[in-house]
């Protein structure tokens, strides 16, 4: 999947082979990256530049569909990378979707992506009843055992 900036800023944890373009990384840095997003990008996301051929194809198609003015250079790079990789695009940008459709590139909206829900487990001490976000054995406060508490959705 090729992710656009809005997909990454949505805070969703995407699964699979994930790609962005250097332009998306620039936009993210401008916007400010949280430590969680930074870790996610480092671990899961590869940055690749699209080929000039694919970029040209996208620009030509955008002219046909009338999306040229609405597509930023970053949008074009996302489409072109999807052409190169034969990948799916995740975006909420209407013009990207429109050109993707015209080019036969599969795409999906950010909100409709098959995202695994992020579950955050918590632990509770059986002695002092304190909740912990991370596992301890034994409880650093009272030395009793912890048990897994009900997960909390984020
Ligand atoms: Zn305790």
Question: Could you explain how this protein is built, in words?
Answer:
The protein has 154 residues and is of the alpha/beta class. It has helices at 5-9, 22-31, 35-44, 52-65, 73-85, 94-103; strands at residues 2-3, 18-20, 45-47, 89-90, 107-108, 119-125, 131-132, 146-153. It starts with a strand and ends with a strand. It is elongated, with a radius of gyration of 21 Å. The structure holds zinc ion. Zinc ion binds at residues 125, 127-128, 130, 139, 141-142, 144.
SSE layout:
Layout: E1 2-3, H1 5-9, E2 18-20, H2 22-31, H3 35-44, E3 45-47, H4 52-65, H5 73-85, E4 89-90, H6 94-103, E5 107-108, E6 119-125, E7 131-132, E8 146-153
Parallel strand pairs: 1-4, 2-3, 4-5
Antiparallel strand pairs: 6-7, 6-8
Helix pairs in contact: 4-5, 4-6
The site of zinc ion (ZN) has 8 residues, from loops.
User: Runs with pLDDT <50, length 5+?
Assistant: none
What molecules are bound to this protein?
zinc ion
Number of helices: 6
* Radius of gyration, whole Å: 21 Å
**What proportion of the residues form beta strands (DSSP E)?**
15-25%
Kindly report the average pLDDT value. 88
Could you describe the largest sheet, including whether it forms a barrel?
3 strands, parallel
Structural class: alpha/beta
């Amino acid at each position: 999947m090729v992710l656009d900036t809005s997909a990454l800023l949505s805070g969703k944890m995407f699964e699979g082979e994930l790609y962005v373009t250097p332009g998306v990384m620039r936009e993210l840095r401008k916007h400010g990256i949280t430590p969680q997003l930074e870790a996610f990008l480092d671990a899961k996301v590869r940055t690749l530049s699209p080929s000039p051929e694919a970029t040209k194809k996208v620009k030509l198609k955008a002219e046909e569909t009338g999306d040229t003015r609405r597509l930023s250079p970053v949008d074009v790079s996302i489409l072109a990378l999807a052409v190169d990789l034969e990948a799916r695009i995740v975006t909420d940008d209407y013009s990207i979707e429109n050109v993707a459709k015209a080019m036969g590139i599969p795409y999906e909206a950010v909100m409709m992506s098959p995202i695994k829900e992020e579950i955050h487990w918590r632990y509770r001490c059986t002695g002092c009843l304190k909740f912990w976000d991370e596992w301890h054995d034994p409880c650093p406060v009272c030395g009793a055992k912890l048990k897994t508490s009900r997960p909390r959705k984020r």
